[in-house]
Model the fold of this input.
Amino acid sequence: MKTSALLRSAALVTAVALIPATTVTMAQVDGRAGPEFAKLFATYERIKTSYVEPVDDDALVRGAIDGMLASLDPHSAYLDGSDLQRLETMIDGNYSGLGLSVVMEDGAVKVISPFRGSPADEAGIKAGDFITHLDGELIYGGSLDDAVAQMRGKAGTSIELTIFRPGRDEPIEVGVTRGVIELEPVTHELQDGNIGLITVNEFSADVGADVYRAWEAIREEATGRVSGLVLDLRSNPGGSLDEAVALSDLFLDEGRIVSQRGRGRGETLLYDAETVFRGDMAEGVPIVVLIDAGSASASEIVAGALQDHRRALVMGQRSFGKGSVQSLLPLGRDAALKLTTARYFTPSGASVQEGGIAPDIRVPQLSDPDFALRERYRTRESDLRGHLINELGVDDEEMESDTIADPRFQLTAEELEEQGIEDFQLHYALETLRRTTKSSVALRP
Done:
């Protein structure tokens, strides 16, 4: 299996920015660790001889590995044959299922985000939902692989999901018909007023080139000069670090894009503009970048780079706050480690770990009737058990500022629906571009 294929598929199920590990250096084992290894082996022997039922060696070894990785951070994991096979089936975003990005949290299957236009999205499943039953069978306490396997299936078949939505008193029963999930990493359209909209759903292979082609298509469709651009990174869980750099480079002609710092020299890297694409392809065009709590990792790299260089105005909600990089380290032919090896920093030297990217203008998604309830229980990186601490320090008041009411945003979802506004955040971004001149928004001085 090619590493590039794994990088692409992994972006669909986890909020990570992966980098390939071409070489792996083995750390020297501290001599003082000998007694600890002796404890591990003694525990293994005691279980094998004294446990009430026979225990398979593979189960014990896998449990020990999972325990080691669980003690590190939420994003490091062991991928064995079944995990790698599940990733492989998602290469190119083409598989049969519901179209959900999920994680296991305290024994429960939690929805990170439904893929846009997927059966799960159309059925009304939302980020933050907990799936407790599949076809009436309790899945709490089971494995994530088993839950995912049950949700997969032939297109056209149906499955009943029982959902617990924070803020709701009663569980929600949702019937979903499986479909062929053909994700489009990049989509585009021309909005009124010659404003382009480019939506990036995930950072898989060639996303930078795809965004360039989308921009060229928008220019051809426009009647005259394009007057503005909205880059929508909402609910984008991340993916390839290289593609985040490439996308940022499309709009920057100088300066740092992101820096990556790890323990070893090989994990400390600097990424600058003009290394992937030459020039600013949309020079002179004001840009608004939309982010929300589901914008993670690679999405935060792009938003942070364009914000720090004052090339774009960032709108929406504070992002997820995942400022770490995972490397895929092979362990033989059918297993690998997804291991956190570095932290990344924006051009200004800020770490987004825990705190995320704060938008220049906070715009709540008022068109979602459940927004207030779901925002109250929204999970970000800082809420995950064992998450890395931001070594530069994060101001708690700044992290909580999202909850402050803004007098500009008082319309209800019902009132917006009456006005025909289905996506308030996008509507606000477009209106901002329409009522401002190119010299006053989203341009470098």
Summary: The chain has 13 helices and 21 strands. Residues 34-50 form the longest helix (17 residues). The chain has a mean pLDDT of 81.
